[in-house]
Design goal:
The protein folds into four domains: about 110 residues, conserved putative lor/sdh protein from methanococcus maripaludis s2 fold (Beta Barrel), CATH 2.40.420; about 90 residues, Efflux pump adaptor protein, beta barrel domain (Elongation Factor Tu (Ef-tu), domain 3), CATH 2.40.30.170; about 60 residues, Beta Barrel (OB fold (Dihydrolipoamide Acetyltransferase, E2P)); about 70 residues, Orthogonal Bundle (Helix Hairpins), CATH 1.10.287.470. Helices cover about 25% and strands about 35% of the residues. The chain has three helices and 22 strands. The chain has about 400 residues and is of the alpha+beta class. The strands form five sheets. A six-stranded antiparallel barrel has the order 2-9-12-11-10-13. A four-stranded antiparallel beta sheet has the order 6-5-3-8.
Length: about 400
Amino acid sequence: MLRISGIVFLAVLVTLAGLGLSNRFAANADLEKVTERDAIASVQTVTIGQGPVSEELILPGTVEAQLQAPIYARTSGYIKAWYTDIGAHVTKGQLLAEIDSPEVDDQLRQAEADLATAQANEQLARSTAERWRILLSTDSVSKQDNDEKAADAAAKSAAVRASQANVARLRQLKEFARVVAPFDGVVTARRIDVGALINAGSGVGPQLFNVADNTKLRIYVQVPQTYAPKVGVDMKAELVFSQYPGKRFPAVLVRTADAIDPAARTLLVELQADNADNKLLPGGYAEVHIALPTMAQTVRAPINTLLFRSEGLRVAKLAGDDKVQLVPITMGRDYGTEVEVLTGLAPGDRIVLNPPDSLGDGQQVRLAQPSPAPQPGATGQNQGSASARTAN
């Protein structure tokens, strides 16, 4: 009886030991599986879509009037009267101010007297030359004397023409005492008053008025060198002004400098906008929106997918077997949160977000979550935008 009990007890012990070993082997196997699974990097991916079909270039612009002229005096004197002030609408030839120029008046009277003297001398010289010509035909005078009288008459005639030119010049200066508008426009500045001393010349005297034609506006924009090939004449643009929130005003690109500024590395372009209602004011700042075409094959990738390696710029592309391929790419323009990829990627490629530096080519990875559905552009935008501060 005791022998049977011992055998049963021994069998129970062997069974328990077998179960313990089996559980330990199963736990070890599970641990190995967990360890192998945890050794595989967990990554998130994004699916690259086709780049936007167009993008909007946003740049600052300087607004100027179509015509703008500072008015200076052409004759010296004192301001006798002024007739227009700032904001006045004037027409071409309209009188703006009058200058009292007594010195010019005196010079004109003297020139007119000199002209009368020269004309009298010319008349006497011509009569003398004619008489001596008649006397020469009868051999009463020598040919030498006749030639001298003819030359004196010609000299007196030249003196008359010189006096006439001087009188015309002074009369023109007298006309310049009337300051008139050079074209239709608006007086934007008046810097004179009655009695002010005025000296002739833009480099000597003060500016009298400033007249501007605001019916059309010129907008000058510096386009970064990267975008210069895409900018051309007759392109449409829109202007945004801070004083008119929510409104956009149309403009047309009319000309470019056809040269890159070596200091700023930008291309100067000029746009024009109609302003018949004088709603927009020159001299201010405008935000210029220009719609640009994009290259059909370019895509965009989030900035947090780039790997900066010693051999060059890379992205981690995920193959069908969830293995990593480190693909070299050529980067175009930088948009801040995205970069333009010129070569290396195509629409539909899956790339790793925030790839670790230790990630190697051919390494097996697992997805932390399903990849987002393909979108038009890396971030699902149909329209792109860029500005001078983000352009490379």
